[in-house]
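Quick one:
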Amino acid sequence: MKIVASNIGKRYNRDWIFKNVSVSVESCSTLAITGSNGSGKSTLLQVLSSLTVPSIGTVSFFSGMEKADDTETYKLISYVSPYQEIIEEMTLAEMLQFHQSFKQLSIKDSKPFAEYCGINKGQNKEIRHFSSGMKQRVKLGLALLSDTPLLFLDEPTSNLDEQGSKWYLSEINKLIGKKTIVVASNIPEEYAFAGQILKISDYQSA
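Output:
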């Protein structure tokens, strides 16, 4: 699935976060959005994933030469963010069942999913009892294993310890060439795999 952004910009009130961003991300290739904290990386990621509407410009998705229906794009996308909410009153098994009512996973049962994410202990507890690192592993696991051609990652190793970060890097490398991946980060290790780099400062007014 190819992403084409044409002259996109986003502003809040009178302040432009970024302007005139045009970028093409080929199917099954990788892009990193870099910049300092608060520079607008997350906002640009949200616009590229169609979670947020740009103030100007357009974002389109293509399968070959065919443009995806805008009303169906949510089916194509998996997204992870530190501020993304998951339903904490659910157990892991309930969360998996709920998630699969929208998107299919390559691992469907809670025990192997917990093993995949490295959260075997407490898998039968409600997610609200998980540590912040365990919650991040759940969010990443759901996104990495979802049957979607587009994967968007915002600061993916947030709340992960060293072991968790190594797990993320190992699993993301298995998806290179299989999905179109866009990551927003200011940590080089998180996007070392990226074939394209977009510096958001290049699209901001002085």
